[in-house]
Amino acid sequence: MSTTKRRQPATPEICPVCGEDVPPRALACPECGADHNSGWREDADAYDGVDLGDDEFNYDEFVREEFGSSPKPRGIRPLWWVTAIVLVAALAALWFYR
């Protein structure tokens, strides 16, 4: 067995994931739980956040792009209504005639 200690990575002063203060020699961020394996890096002090665009997020536009022009689902087609009614009637008939 080796008796050498593994050197603990340097703890950043500010968490690069959530932006909260991190105590010295902490193993993880007390707010979000990020640690060296999940988010801290050598250049953690230089990183100031997620690289997002400067424009505002438009939810309605996102829904239109992802799901088409209508954000509301279409009604159930008549064929499925008829199928459901026949199935319920068949189950009711089986229940009463057993």
In which range does the helix fraction lie?
25-40%
Give the SSE order as H and E letters.
HH
Radius of gyration: 29 Å
Distance between the termini: 74 Å
Largest sheet: none
Main structural class: mainly alpha
- Give the beta-strand count: 0
Strand content: under 5%
Rounded mean pLDDT is 77
Figure out the total of helices. Answer: 2
Shape: elongated
Q: What is the chains' assembly state?
A: single chain
Q: Outline the low-pLDDT stretches.
A: none
Task: Tell me about this structure.
This protein has helices at 59-67, 78-96. The mean pLDDT is 77. The radius of gyration is 29 Å and the shape is elongated. By secondary structure, it is an all-alpha fold. The chain contains two helices and no strands.
State the gist of this model.
By secondary structure, this protein is mainly alpha-helical. The chain is built from two helices and no strands. The protein is elongated and about 80 Å long.
List the topology elements.
Elements: H1 59-67, H2 78-96
What descriptors fit this protein?
mainly alpha; elongated; 0% strand; 2 helices; 98 residues
